[in-house]
Amino acid sequence: MKVLSVLLLLILLTSCYSIERECSDFKTGTFEFSYTIDGVEQTSKFKRTENYNIDYHNGIADSSSVRWINDCEFILKKLHPTSNSEKDAIHMKILSTSENSYTFEYKLAAKRPNKPLNVEKGVATKIN
Where is the signal peptide (predicted)? Predict the structure, then answer.
């Protein structure tokens, strides 16, 4: 009986917990994002408006269109792709937010036949 009571209490406590998602605070602004390629950590900056996302990496700007699905999800599509892989749209989803950052996941918007769908996660920090 004690085990059942403790289990019920745990279920009640965890069901009241919800992840904070104030996605509208991160629809626009300037952000930083750190990632690792071949064991080397790199940082990229990007600026997002309602309709565009401009990435700045190694002094080169790269623009994408932004189409919002809802307050926490949007589709990025490169405006000037330089390869076939850059033509694919990316689905971005904000998973949680804090005061000045958000955790997100991203994947290809359309699954390619006979290839696994890779979902990656990251954290972006709002700097302006």
Answer: 1-20
Please report the sign of the dihedral spanned by the C-alpha atoms of residue 20, residue 22, residue 25, residue 27: positive
Kind of pairing, strands 73-78 and 52-57?
Answer: unpaired
- Sign, Cα dihedral of 124, 125, 127, 128: positive
Domain regions of the chain by residue span: 20-126
| Distance, CA of 30 to CA of 43 (rounded, Å) | 13
Handedness of CA 101, 93, 18, 71 (dihedral sign): positive
User: How far is residue 16's CA from residue 121's CA, in Å, rounded to a whole number?
Assistant: 25
In tens, the pLDDT along 8-44 reads: 666 666 655 566 788 999 999 999 988 887 888 888 8
Question: How does pLDDT run across 57-96, given as a tens digit for each residue?
Answer: 888 899 999 999 999 999 999 999 988 888 899 999 999 9
- The CATH classification number of 20-126 equals 2.40.128.20
Q: Which residues pair with 54 in a beta bridge?
A: 47, 63
7 SS3 class: helix
